[in-house]
Design brief:
Structural class: mainly alpha
Distance between the termini: 47 Å
Strand content: 5-15%
Shape: elongated
Number of helices: 2
Largest sheet: 3 strands, antiparallel
Order of helices and strands: HEEEH
Length: about 80
């Protein structure tokens, strides 16, 4: 597998600009477009037609931030459901 680049940022998220900048500037990921499964956090590289197995620092940080977003969303849903 390969370390890859994902410079997309979906609406209503709070993925840090630092994480996005790290992804964009990684020289080993240039030209590799990826997608990430939000549930499993699996990353697939379109250029290599393979899943990314390494947990490069930018990818680990992205997964952490996605988990934090999920936790905040779940907390908001729980709060809204109890009112």
């Amino acid at each position: 597998a390969v370390e890859t680049d994902d410079s997309s940022n979906s609406n209503n998220t709070s993925i840090s600009n630092n994480t996005i900048d790290n992804i964009k500037s990684s020289s080993s990921t240039a030209g590799h477009e990826v997608c990430i499964d939000i549930v499993s956090k699996a990353v697939h590289c379109y250029a290599c037609d393979d899943y990314v197995l390494s947990d490069a620092p930018w990818l680990a940080q992205l997964r952490i931030e996605l988990n934090e977003i999920e936790l905040r969303r779940d907390a908001m849903e729980t709060t809204n459901a109890s009112t």
